[in-house]
Specification:
Blueprint: E1 2-8, H1 16-25, E2 32-36, H2 45-53, E3 59-62, H3 65-68, H4 72-85, E4 89-92, H5 106-143, H6 156-167, H7 173-180, H8 184-199
Parallel strand pairs: 1-2, 1-3, 3-4
Length: 200
């Protein structure tokens, strides 16, 4: 039996390219398992179901090694479990050398294992680099004064103060709207209320 495994990291990402690659390889739709989850570990519901189903002679197809996972040690362990313990095969479409259905002699197995270790290391290293780039980007944004989290909620007395600052020419209407975190309609509605309060 030939099974396919498809993974995207978030619910917003599309799995279309991977599904097309599976169908072109010859995996039927009902044998494709999909997870919309990070590849940092293998605690994924559909992946676990799929591995439990695998038996001797079955083939697991993935588009690329990082779709299987991104943790170096865990990829190696999963590969060992599937190919050595379950005696199933793995095919990585984007890397034909990682096709355990081919070259089953000692040299072929050695080359496949070496390439797997190298690619698994690259996949995990890229995951670490992404996290580091994100942290550096956030730190740089904070230094530029970018605020994270929800904007401050303004109370009526704050609106009055903003209106008075606008009246004194200290800020523009656009700046007042930005400070309030309000669209133009909300801004004018609030200002009209403030004006009414001033008249009373």
């Amino acid at each position: 039996m030939i099974y396919g495994y498809v993974r995207v990291s978030t619910r917003e990402q599309k799995e279309d390219r991977q599904l097309i690659a599976m169908e072109e390889y010859g995996v039927s739709r009902e044998n494709i398992y999909l997870d919309k989850q990070s590849g940092k570990d293998f605690n994924r519901a559909n992946y676990i179901k799929l591995v439990k189903k695998l038996k001797k002679g079955d083939v697991l197809v993935v588009k690329s090694i990082d779709r299987l996972g991104r943790n170096y040690n865990e990829i190696i362990e999963q590969w060992r479990q599937i190919t050595k313990v379950k005696n199933a095969d793995i095919v990585v479409i984007d890397m034909p050398i990682l096709d355990t259905t081919q070259n089953k002699d000692l040299l072929g197995t050695l080359i496949s294992d070496l390439v797997l270790q190298l690619l698994s290391y690259v996949a995990e290293n890229e995951r670490k680099n992404i996290k580091q780039r994100q942290a550096e980007g956030i730190a740089a944004a904070k230094l530029r004064g970018v605020k994270f989290g929800r904007p401050k909620k303004y109370k009526p007395e704050d609106y009055m103060e903003l209106y008075e600052r606008f009246e004194r020419g200290e800020i523009t209407q656009k700046q007042a709207m930005k400070i309030m975190g309000a669209c133009q309609t909300t801004y004018y509605m609030v200002i009209n209320e403030v004006k009414k309060m001033n008249k009373n």
